[in-house]
Amino acid sequence: MLGPGLVLAGGVVLEGLSIASKELEGSARPIAAALVVIVAIVSLAGVLSLRPGTRRGWTSSSALTCLPSGAYLAARFTEGPWSHLTGILLPLLVLVVARSSEGRRARLGLFFAALVLLGATRRERPPPPRPPLPRSDVPAASGPSLVVLVIDTLRADALDPEGEIARFARGGVDFRQCVGAAPWTLPAIGSLLTGLMPSQHGALTAMTPLADEVTTLAELLRARGYATAAFTGGAFVGTAHHLDRGFEHFDAGCERRFAPFRRHVPLVWRLAKNRYVPLRWLVRWVDEFRGFAGVVAGARAWGEERKASGDTRPFFLLLHTYQVHDYYIYDPPVDDRVLEDGPGLSERFADRFSVHPSELSTATQADLDVFHRLYQGRVRAVEAGLPELERCVRDLAGENAVWVLTADHGEGFDAARGRVHHGGRLHEDLLRVPLLVHAPGRLPEGLVVESTVRSVDVMPTVLDLLDQPVPPGLAGESLLPALRGERAFPASAFAEERAHGFDLLTLRRDGWKWIRGPGHAELYRLAEDPREAFPLPGEPPGELRDELEAFSARFPARASAEIELDPATLEHLRALGYVR
Ligand SMILES: [Zn+2]
Q: Is pLDDT at 174 greater than 50 in this prediction?
């Protein structure tokens, strides 16, 4: 029994180190880490000095319960990062007490075991409270329902022509040249949900939320009698950056089995994910990530609740998944199949459970090709869940639903040009996203549109499809008149990157693409060079320059006031590689 005791004690050491390194800032970090090591060594020595079964020894059951119970209880019942240190100290205390009260050792062990069980049944504290929105008292609208599915990081060219999304595309309008407003999640989804450019809605950097005066699609529809609900992968698509505004029900944690990056995440999982121990089998067994299946399950549960409560309002359902985005964080059921089926990653990345995106930028093309296969595997996994989502929506709304399937931005896998991951640049691999719109009876089926459209057109278009007025001042426009042939499709598409130390703006127009920033300019002729492989020398046509100038004057970059992120969101953003 000494063996398991040692393993547990070792686990506590690693847990303490992990916590100390992540959650303590500034000068407290090295002190805390040193304390953890010292106390853990003393605890280990305590365990080693036990002689199970002998009169002076401690019963092995007590030894086995006191170490994890101390850490567990402290994490359950105390606040703040120091609780973990207390957790490491408690086992020592228990050992001392146990050695000085021999007659009651077994009972003491049982007492702690009971406390552990009590702790295990206590619910995790909820994330920072968001005042629940009451059901709107506006008379119920009578239009169709709306489903918007955002598959984070899905490139326009990543779809399998035989896959479920391609099948879905044939049921409506397939916009093949949709341009996102930004090359990373927060500003891009902000634009999708407001119809505004990032400089207008203010969510420009990881620390700036949507501006207060901006109205979201959910707020508009709720005010017009719609039920509103969102199931997302969290991080940027969460309460911290105010993307939950207007949603009566907002669940940002449905992609994970455990509340994300909280203290009660099993110790063994943290150890494995932090690469302290080579426990691939364990990661497979614990398998905390549910991905898109969790999003669909959340929507289904919400739908059943809605039916039970007799809510017959039309609804706006926003669904968002990081399953494709997180291709560099090990997801056993999906990734194992891909890795078995072809060459694997080089020694640098093989057997890693998570890779920081900054490491991708120095990966070889051979490794990026494997990552690209993992990425494609994730796309297939999301595609496999689409029919279940369609059944779920059909159960709720019959055929009377408008659908939008899109992405916020794409992803780069090109080592030679340094176009890897997303953010920090404005090339087509990041800006071109799929945009599929279904509206039975309102839009044709199987129509493919090759004209340029923009993510900012989504909000006015769906409002138009739902027969709701489109508010003035949006950067986008309804695409219905153009689809009816009454007007031309938008002539110009802009995108912005104002975070990560960049100040880039791009304009795509008449087959040209111009990317411009301080001391930086790239000009491409997209019509002949869709991959932007051959930057052209010289200046762009005057029209392009004038229009870009006019955009800058009309929408001067304006970030909202910075917010302080809660620890859970910060930790999630760190894991995704957005915050250091
Ligand atoms: Zn994203």
A: yes
**pLDDT tens-digit map of 272-296:** 555 445 566 666 666 678 899 999 9
Report the DSSP beta bridge partners of residue 504: 497
Which of 306, 299, 362, 292 lies closest to 334 in space, CA to CA? Answer: 292
Distance 152 CA to ligand 1 centre (A): 5
CB-count exposure of residue 421 (10 Å: 0-12, 13-18, 19+): buried
- Say how many Å lie between the CA of residue 352 and the centre of ligand 1: 23
Q: Determine how β-strand 145-151 pairs with β-strand 315-321.
A: parallel
Q: Give distance in angstroms: CA of 408 to centre of ligand 1.
A: 5
Q: Are 35 and 85 in contact (CB under 8 A)?
A: yes
CA 342 centroid distance within chain: 28
> What's the 154 CA to ligand 1 centre distance in angstroms?
8
CA 463–ligand 1 middle distance (angstroms): 24
pLDDT at 40: 61
What are the DSSP E strand ranges found in 62-221?
A: 145-151, 173-179
**Pick from 349, 159, 321, 194: nearest CA to 254:** 321
Ligand 1 centroid – CA 185 distance (Å):
3
- One DSSP character per residue, 463-526 reads HHHTT-PPPTT-SS--SHHHHTTSSPPPSEEEEEE-STT--EEEEEETTEEEEEETTEEEEEET
Q: How far apart are CA 318 and CA 316, in angstroms?
A: 7
Q: How distant is the alpha carbon of residue 470 from its chain centre?
A: 29
Are residues 398 and 357 in contact, defined by beta-carbon separation less than 8 angstroms?
no
Strands 412-414 and 419-421: antiparallel
Q: Which residue has the tokens 């690469």?
A: 275
The DSSP call for residue 241 is T
Q: What is the pTM of this model?
A: 0.80
Phi and psi torsions of 516, nearest 5°: -140, 140
Phi, psi of 448 (to 5 degrees): -110, 125
